[in-house]
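User: My instructor asked us to take a sequence, write out its structure as tokens, and then describe one feature of it. I'm not sure where to start. Here is the sequence I was given:
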Amino acid sequence: MSIKTTHEVVTVGDRTVSLPQVAAETLTEAGVSLPAGSTSVGAVVACVSAPAVPGARRIGSQWNAEKVVEQAESVSVDTVIVRITGDRVERYMALRDHTSVIRESGTETWVLEDPATAVAAPELDFCSVEWGNLLSESLEDDRGFTSSLSTWDGTIGLRCSDRELHLRIYKGTIIDVTRRTPHGATFTFVAPAHTWVDLVLSDTDDFMRRAISGEFSSTGDGYEYLRLTKPLNTIIAHARLIARKANS
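Assistant: Let's start with the prediction itself. The structure tokens for your sequence are:
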């Protein structure tokens, strides 16, 4: 049922895409029987449909249902690796109906038998301090970024799922990269891990299109978030730049 698009070595951004199939048929092929009306259909279908992360075993998962999938429905399962740290791999899964709408989704945690079979690159560990330092170094010589914030004194927060990074900025210069600043961020740009993967690793830089369509969220000062859309666009562009260096 699944079409693999992963590599032999596991990396952030590796994907699998399954062909559409009726949920009941998938369960039958896997030898699984669930009672009528079970709310676990989607999670089980995703589990048995998606291939395992190469060289790893699953140790946990979290699952959410926007609208519970029923056994008579046709669905497909997409997965993408969103984080690799040490011997741990996090993978996002989305269960789509026949109209490609995401009905249920979740994140799995896998442990690698051999950490050397995966690429744990700080350039792809979004919103970690190590990633933030690389981002700061990349932005340092960008005159467009420094000039757009030349009179600004504040903190931009970047959040990827449960990880948050603060960039303390004074008159166009990033003076600190940290998990938290004493007075918090002026505003925080918020996106789930799979969206960060799409933003940073896609062939097209479509941050502005996504921002205009309201795909992202923010906390803190909403006015400043909207006013500083251009610097945010530059930050994402540099995130894409350092990611390309990691993959070169």
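For the description part of your assignment, you could build on this observation: The mean pLDDT is 93. Try explaining in your own words what that tells you about the chain.
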